[in-house]
Amino acid sequence: MLRSRFVALVMACFILSTGSGWCGSSLPAFDPANAAPPVDYSLSESWLAVPQQPGKFAVDVFWVYPTVFSGDSGWLMTICDQDMRHRAQATLARQAAVFSCQANLYAPMYRQMNMAGLSLSADQRDSLMEYGRNDLAHALDYYLKNQNNGRPFVLAGHSQGAELLLEWALKHWGGTDLEDRLVAAYVIGWSITTDDLKQNEAIRVCQKSGETGCFVSYNSVAPGHLKDAPTVRSGAVVVNPLSWTTNEALVPASSNLGSAFFAADGTTQTIPGFASAQVRGDGLVVIASDPSLLQTDSSTFPTGVYHPFDYGLFFENLRSNCAERIQSYLITH
């Protein structure tokens, strides 16, 4: 039976320590003096992807990859780590491909927090995330000044990448000259909450399939597993990727154009009608025709938490929706 290799990047179980000390696997306490320097985005090696033909498409996509860094080598990913670059590269085919087949793809490297950071206190985690925040801000600034050339763009990411994009938007959106150039922002695998929307009223959650200038967010889980998902935040405003609305109506699997599963040998299987979706509380509840294809060995995302499959479960619907939003934008602007 096919077993999905979709984002098969998992970490060993770690033990949470008491008190305020750094913890997780055998990692030592984080020392800022040992952190890699800020990324220089004028250098080609600072980019995971840039288009070979800039301007081939009328629209760009700026992709921020999810957590690919785990293990005991350190708390922060360095962009020179070839294994981590390879893992980040895999997300281009398994996730960003829903956008890149119709937009010019830009994807920066950044100093990512180790997945073990999820075990830390809020303050410790925040101090590690600050490196990625700074890198993302610099990458976006470089891209907009030197690569975008005034084109409309899609912002997209998953997991830690989506979190960084949302944090950047909460700080800046509504105060730039970019708002009218946003096709849509797909911050999937992280939550946009009602508190976030109160914090920055310029951020709008998408309410229909062809809407532009808005944000999409959801976290996929099996029935009964909402509380097990670490990326589901209280008060989340969830967009259903089968209806592109935030209402709680069950959308049947017949509306699913195709879930994509990526095998270790590089082959892909697309299964139409594989899963239904329903907004329930703070998450997206998914009923799959074969849940065995959605198993991982991850302690962070246990059985029933479909976080590694957020893109794959709705791969063809995401691709179709991006095309619709691009066409809508180009017609109306």
Give structural notes:
The protein has one domain (32-332). It is built from five helices and eleven strands, in the order ββαβαβαβαββββββα. Residues 1-21 have low confidence and may be disordered. The radius of gyration is 19 Å and the shape is globular. The strands form three sheets. Strands 1-3-2-4-5-6 form a six-stranded mixed sheet, with helices on both faces. It has a three-stranded mixed sheet with strand order 7-11-10, with no helix packed on it. With 333 residues, the chain is an alpha/beta fold.
Q: Supply Rg.
A: 19 Å
Low-pLDDT runs: 1-21
The number of helical elements comes to 5
Q: Tally the structural domains.
A: 1
Biggest sheet architecture: 6 strands, mixed
Q: What average pLDDT do the residues reach?
A: 90
Q: What is the H/E order?
A: EEHEHEHEHEEEEEEH
Number of strands: 11
Form type: globular
Share in β-strands: 5-15%
**Residue share in helix:** 10-25%
Task: Chart the SSEs and their pairings.
Elements lengths: L46 E3 L10 E5 L17 H19 L3 E5 L13 H25 L6 E6 L1 H13 L9 E7 L5 H6 L14 E3 L3 E2 L37 E4 L5 E4 L6 E3 L2 E3 L29 H18 L1
Parallel strand pairs: 2-3, 2-4, 4-5, 5-6, 7-11
Antiparallel strand pairs: 1-3, 8-9, 10-11
Q: Gist?
A:
The chain is 24% helix and 14% strand.
Q: What are the salient characteristics of this protein?
A:
disordered N terminus, alpha/beta, 5 helices, 333 residues, 14% strand, three-stranded mixed sheet, globular
